[in-house]
Every structure is written in structure tokens, then in C-alpha cells.
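dumping this here so i dont lose it again. seq + smiles for zinc ion
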Amino acid sequence: MSSQSTGLRPWRQRWNALFQDHEIFIRTHGHVRFVRVSAVWQKRVALIAAAVLFAWAAVTVAIFVNQLLSADERAEVARKQAAATAAEARIAQYRDRVGEIAADLDERQAQLEEWQKTYFGAEALPAAADDDKTGAAADKPPETNTLKTSAVDPRLPPEAQALARIEARQEVFSARLLAAVGARAAKAEGAVAKLGLDPASLVRNAAAGRGGPFIPFRGRIGAAGALGKSFAALEGALFRMEVLERTLVAIPSGQPAHVLMLSSSYGYRSDPFTGASAMHSGLDFPGPLGTPILAAAPGKVVYVGQRAGYGNVIEVDHGQGIMTRYAHLSGFTTRAGAQVAAGQQIAKMGSTGRSTGSHLHFEVRLNGVAVNPRRFLEAKADVLEVKDDARQRVGALASATPGRGAR
Ligand SMILES: [Zn+2]
């Protein structure tokens, strides 16, 4: 305390030295006036002046600081706005992408459902065994890789991730469908091969649009390709299955007449008229005049009339390039253009044309080339079972799509 007062003393002395009592004499018009300016008064004025100066400085500083602060605030607001705008743009981008993915998934789902409904109907996918496999595999961590789908950006928001999971499930379903289709196609392929036909060339011919009426593959051609690899694979598998099953259905394995067939009559033999060796391109079924002649497979009657040598003839197109011809008839019970079922009567046995007696001449042509019908007529029970399954499916297919009747 004492040191402080001793420290302040020189300043107080200087301060007091600044303000001395002043006495001012003012002479006006011969009168002399005496004005006294005391040190105390001077000090007061100086203090007031200092206070005013201080107030002015404080206000100035306050205004300056305020300006600085508001500039900062403005920058902050601008920064926040920019961030919000960027976020909005990002969200909009996500929304677009999410919308795109959702539309893509919708399209795929519709295609999958259409395929399942068309080819399997109410029938559950016969992939129970496969299901177990898939289920077991799904438990394993490596299988979660299927959840990583190329179409989904991992930086996408949760709704897009949800879509990715849907897509993964779709992939699993599509794989199940593919397995089911493959199994059915393999069954049909085995049966077709047992009937002496080459499944690979049947599918090739159908794909090339050759070999008789081409199967109009349902849905938009090539649409699956745009939907992804697994869908293209599914489309190919469905096409193959449909060709093989339709071929199986088209194969004339029904008895064209309930009489004994001369099973050795197909091939080279001596012509009953000339005695010379000649190719006999069908099977003969001798029987009483008027015996009912039956369509050997479902199809469309494409010819009713006479042909040289054959006499009265009916030709039925079964699709897949398969045609049957019934010759030497005594009468017709159908007309050209009619759809006939397997076993439906189409004519009566006779002996018209180059015939030595009442019999049916039965021919099967595959893409215009005569084949021995015997292998079809003598098809084993296992093959006929597969064929019957296929007939029910293809039949359901035909009834499910009006305007695309059985061929
Ligand atoms: Zn014949």
C-alpha cells in the first residue's frame, strides 16, 4: 500500500502541476474584470473531456467489432447455405438413382413373375432341394457376396441399400427359376433324345427360325438382355425348355388307327406294283375300310385333298417342324384349318391312290424329311410320362395366352 502510494505520488504531482489556479484580467472599455480559473475546475473540464473521448472511442470500437462479427456471421450463413445446397443436390442425385434402381427392380420383378406364371403357373417352383442348398449357402458368409450388387453404389443412402437387398433376393429367386427351368429342360431333352431326335439341333433350328413354325418366344425379344446377365441366361433357358417341351408334345406318338401296324414296312422294300426296290417313307396299318383314322398328336390340319400316289390325304402340322400325313383314305371327318387333339378322328381308312388294299399309310416328316414313325409310336412309358407333363404345361401355356393356340 505504501509502495503504491509512493509510486503514484510523482504522477499525482505531475497531474496537479498541469492544473494551476489561474487569474485572468480582462480589460473591456476601460473596465478591468477579474476572472479566476481554479485548478479544480480545470480538472473537472479535463475529466469530462476525457470521459467524452473515452465514450466516443468505446462506441467506435463497438461499431467496428459489430461489423466484424456480422461479417463473420454472414460468412457462416453463406457456408451453411452452400452446404445445404450441396446436400440437397446430393439427395436429389440419390433420389434419381434410387428411382432408377426401383424402376429397374420393378421391371425385373414383373418379368420374373410373368415367366413364373407363364411357365409354372400355380405350380410351386420344383426347387425344394435347391432351396435347401440356397438356404444353407445363404448362412455361409461368402454367400453374402450376392448382396453386393453391381448396380448399387455403397455410398447410397439407406433406401438404396434396401433396394440392393431386394435386388439380391431377386437374384436368388431368378437363380431358383433358372434351376427349375434347367431341370425341366433336361427332362424334356432326355425324352426327345430317347425318341431318336437331336435336342441340340432342334433348339438351333428353332433359334434360327427354321424348321417349321417358329415358336414365338413370349415377352419382348432381347428384353432380358437389357435386364442383366442372369435374366439373359433365364431367357435362353426358357427358350430351350419351351422348344424341347413343344417338340415333345408335337411328336406323334398316338396310334393313328387302332389296328396292327406293319412295323417292318418303313424303308427300302420291293414296290408292290413294280417289284423294284423303292423307299417306303411311312408305316402301313392294314385294316377294314372305314376304320377311324386318328390324329397322332395335337395340331392343325393343313391339307385335306388328293395327292398323286397317296390318294385321299390329310396332313397335320404339329409345330416344331413336325408334320404327319395320313394317306389312301376313303373319307374325311375334318377340314383344312381345323385344330385337332391327339386321338381325335380325322378320316376313314380306305384304298385310294396307289394301294393294293384297305390300309392307312402313315408318314411323319421332320422339317420336310421323312423319319421312321415307329420310334415315336413305340415310345416307352417313361418318355410318354414326360411327354404328358409337357403336354399339360404347353396346353396351359396355350390357354393362358389367347391367340396363340396349340400348333
Ligand atoms: Zn404305305
